Amino acid sequence: MSLRAEASTPRVATVRRFGPAQRWVHRTTAALMGVCVVTAACLYVPQLAELVGRRELVVRVHECAGLALPVPVLVGLASRAFRADLGFLNRFGPHDRVWLHAALVRDKRRSSRPAGKFNAGQKIYAAWITGATLVMLGTGLLMWFTHLTPLVWRTSATFVHDWLALTIGIVLAGHIGMAIGDPEARRGLRTGRVSREWAQHEHPLWRP
Fold it and tell me: Where is the Cytochrome b561 bacterial/Ni-hydrogenase domain (predicted)?
């Protein structure tokens, strides 16, 4: 009975969206970023700091995770597919401006949101989080090696590091919220494949 039911159920056509390299880079970077965010919260929120304790250990874990953040991307550069995706993310064409305008005016019509493999929002997020990560890494190093820089540099670095960390936390919350609302996109990052219907609807200019 179950075999007949399974046979009668039409299979959903899928296309490959991400290979193993892209998925590994995303998962590893997400894990490291998660460690950075959690340890930062334990360092700056008094209630969490008191609950967790062992501040020195938390600081060391935070520093190691922060230093390791660029590593997955650097390793991923060995993959041709990953480099191709970076190329897609780095190109902002006329259709991306159309997509962005539609998003700003909340126009949800498919024809008003043309997108290739990545839409304009994903490209902007990727560029912003990359820049923010590099700034966090630089300011973190200034805070770590206190004997190498003047006091005013360290004070400025601490100010930028703290406020940018808060901003990253807010942006990441939005990123995760949007991912929760799109199961098919999550499936693409989990399995590497998405339904052809979703691809045509969300990324009509993408030719997998």
Answer: 17-180
Average pLDDT in the 185-196 region? 93
Closest CA to 185 of 23, 9, 69: 23
Q: Is the dihedral of CA 156, 149, 39, 131 positive or negative?
A: positive
Partners of residue 15 on adjacent β-strands? 194
Domain layout of the chain by residue ranges: 12-202
Phi, psi of 46 (to 5 degrees): -55, -40
Task: Render pLDDT for 25-68 as a digit per residue (tens, 0 to 9).
Answer: 999 999 999 999 999 999 888 888 888 888 889 999 999 999 99
Which CATH number among 1.20.950.20, 3.10.310.40, 1.20.1740.10, 3.90.480.10 corresponds to the domain 12-202?
1.20.950.20
